[in-house]
Amino acid sequence: MSLLKDSELEEVHRKIIDGTIEKCGQFYNTRILEAIKIRWLKIYERKLQATEKGPDQPGAAQQGGAPNVADDFEDDEFEDAEVEEKEIAELEQHLQDDEADELNELDDISISDLSDVDPPTSNVIVGICDKITKPCGRRNASSNWKIKLKGGLMKVDGKEMFFRSLQGDLDIVGGGVDSLCLALYLSKNKHHIKLLNVKRKCSLLDSHYSKKNVCEVGRHYAFPLSGSSSHFGELLRWVTAEDEVIRSNPYASNLSYLDECGRTYRVNKFIFRILFCLLKDHLFGASIPNPKEERMSSFIRRRFDANLLESVISPYCLHYFGYSPRDVLMRSHFPEFMDRLEEEKSLVKALRATAKKGSSSIFAQKKKSVKFAKGNVTLLSKLRDHLELCSNVEVRLGRKSIKCEQIIFCLSPPELKGLLRKVIFEGKQMDALVKEDTLVKKYLSKFRSHAVRISNVCFAKNVLPLSHSLESLLLFKRNKQNKLISLLYDGNIFPPQCDGPSGVEDHPGEPSPEGGLYKTSLRFMSRETDERKSVEEIDRFLRGVLGVQEKPDLLVSHVHHVFPFDARADQAYKKIIRRKCPRVRLFWTFYFFRSFEFCLQEAKRFGEAV
């Protein structure tokens, strides 16, 4: 009985196809299933047509080059037939031609244009479709369909993993602690990442090893750790580095400053003046305006006095930020506090509300400063080791040509400016970005940098008999004698000697004096960038102010560039990037803000938004 004459059998076939597509619609995208249904129906109709023409024109199909598929349904198919090896080969060739014709038919109903240069792969991704974007009709737009999956299972290079969402590859250009932390948060969100290292070392975290001593020469000397709920504590647990940290001297509670005549004053000398200004602001400060572009210098002058600004605020800003209060934008560095101040109309109420909310690390309970016993570069090595074990992260060395779905630059403004001149981007959109060199220079130049030199001075002997009673942190007022900003004394700059294995054994060096560790350790910060002049001013300060006549046994110094954050320039430049090339994003929070906890918070927020 043939299919053409049996209308009931034809109806059964169509019901089977419709039922199968309907059942699979719960698990697969309906557009793909519709394409499969059309394919099945076309194959079925062609077989019906071939069966109908078979009795009348037995050789027509073979003459036209199409296979005789009607033979599949004849009851007497092999009756009186001679089976030869030659005919088997012809049948195989006809079947191959049949499959090729079916694939040619499917070309007309394709839902995606795949690149013919993509290599074949055995990777499989099964997920729930969240969004399908059709190609744009504009001439210069992409002609590819875009599919976003919101959950499923992927098998890449033989490894299986679950994912929440999947959109494409991400390339992170950097190599410092900022790019490593961002890659870690992105990997937690199941993104596939390629990390391109274009830096030899990280200026934010850098350790110097000499004679079994560890010296921190980076911008970050210590890290605040406020309980297990902090982002830094979470980071330590992820990379299994909790056992590597040691307690640092909590110098934040021991502030003092040095005036032009070399006299030392405790900050608590100004406590009564500060309380009086806070009370006055609480009673009469509701009428004081808060401009959007207000800087810390004008903010302090409106609510306190110039003496407090010059004696306490300016030295501390120079030590903490590396630049003066006139370069500190209040809404850029303290946005939540400024929003609360507008609501409460009082400094006291705003400070209390911020402390209760716990949004500021200043009011964090059980706050302590920690660093790594083997040097702060331990954090970098731990991050790299952790990322290399992640199946969705690939660490590479930087190249001049990169190709990816989305690029994230973790670079400072000067580094980004230099990279855009050298890197060859593939694609017309990136070429358009490079052509806008005038806009790039205009807005990147707004992020002007300030150079500071950090010098670590160490003595084998205890050259300061009263060093244990010396204030932990000295802040220097601006004076004509030198360009020093601050002096930090900390007995824990180097890790205590222990019997167990130490990380400094990886850098043995020469035998160190007095049992292995220097007894006096000082860390200077200065605006003097010339190395010779910096050594001279430190020597004058040691001899003239501290009365130290011995020469240092170790002096290590590095110049760092700090960048005042300009919110308007930041928004303007990122707007240009989004307009000229939507695939490029910037993450440079670590270069503008010193709070490591805040930087990790921004990295986590950035990773969740991608």
Automatic annotation (TrEMBL):
- According to its UniProt record, where is this protein located? Nucleus
What Gene Ontology molecular-function terms does this entry list? oxidoreductase activity
* Main localisation: nucleus
| Coiled coil regions, renumbered to chain | none
- State whether keyword Transcription applies: yes
Question: Per UniProt, which keywords does this protein have?
Answer: Nucleus, Transcription
Q: Where is this region: Disordered?
A: 51-72
Domain of life of the source: Eukaryota
Q: Which Pfam families match?
A: Amino_oxidase (PF01593)
Q: Specify residue ranges for compositional bias: Low complexity.
A: 56-70
- A Gene Ontology term for the protein's cellular component: transcription factor TFIIA complex
Gene Ontology biological process terms in this record: transcription initiation at RNA polymerase II promoter
Tell me the first and last residues of the signal peptide.
none
Q: Boundaries of each Amine oxidase domain copy?
A: 292-417
Keyword Mitochondrion in annotation: no
Recorded protein name is Amine oxidase domain-containing protein
Organism in which the protein naturally occurs: Plasmodium vivax (strain Brazil I)
